[in-house]
Amino acid sequence: MLWLPWHCALAEAGLDYDVVTISDDNDYRRSSHSVRFQPTVMTRSNCSSPRALVLHIAGLSTALVPTDAQDAAQTQSWVFAALDSVEPRVDNLILPLLFHGDESWVAGWRPHAEWLVNLRLKSLSGCLKDPEWLTGPL
Predict the structure, then answer these.
(1) pLDDT at position 108
(2) Fewest Cβ atoms closer than 10 Å to its Cβ: which of 74, 116, 120, 129?
(3) How far apart (Å, rounded) are the C-alpha atoms in residues 115 and 65?
(4) How far, in Å, CA of 43 to CA of 133, rounded?
(5) Burial of 19 (0-12, 13-18, 19+ CB in 10 A)
């Protein structure tokens, strides 16, 4: 199963949710009804972006977003910073194997992708130092 960002957010927020596994050979994926069961509908929000959906879910629980308005805004800023700076490097590491795993170039690409992820994480680690929280305590 692919563990998508909203699954992580729901789990971290301590919110109940159901996971429905759909196989590649299932007619459900090709039906027009599959759109009805997208995560945006399941959370009763109008979010159409995974990033917006994660922020919406985070806002439903004080486990993920502080109640103070300034700290909440900083938390949102950190979420987008992580998504914009770390996620692309991790995608470059994971997605080629996921979608092109049987192609010869993937094995040659992986060491470079790992290097890029490590470089980004080391850079962020140096910037963040070691505070207990990125923003006010939750």
Answers:
(1) 94
(2) 129
(3) 32
(4) 28
(5) exposed
- The answer on 96 and 30 residing in a single domain is no
Claim to verify: residue 24 and residue 49 sit in the same structural domain: yes
* Average pLDDT score over residue span 27-32: 52
Together in a domain, 71 and 136? yes
Residues 81 and 60 in one domain: no
What is the chain's Cα-based Rg? 18
What distance in Å separates the CA atoms of residue 60 and residue 72, rounded to the nearest whole number? Answer: 12
- Parent domain of 121: 66-138
More confident residue, 55 or 137: 55
Q: Which of 10, 9, 7 is nearest to 21 (CA)?
A: 7
Residue 67 to residues 57, 72, 138: CA-CA distances in angstroms? Answer: 14, 7, 8
- pLDDT tens digit string along 70-120? 888 888 888 788 778 888 898 899 889 888 989 999 999 999 999 999 999
Nearest residue to 96 via CA among 84, 87, 88, 105? 105
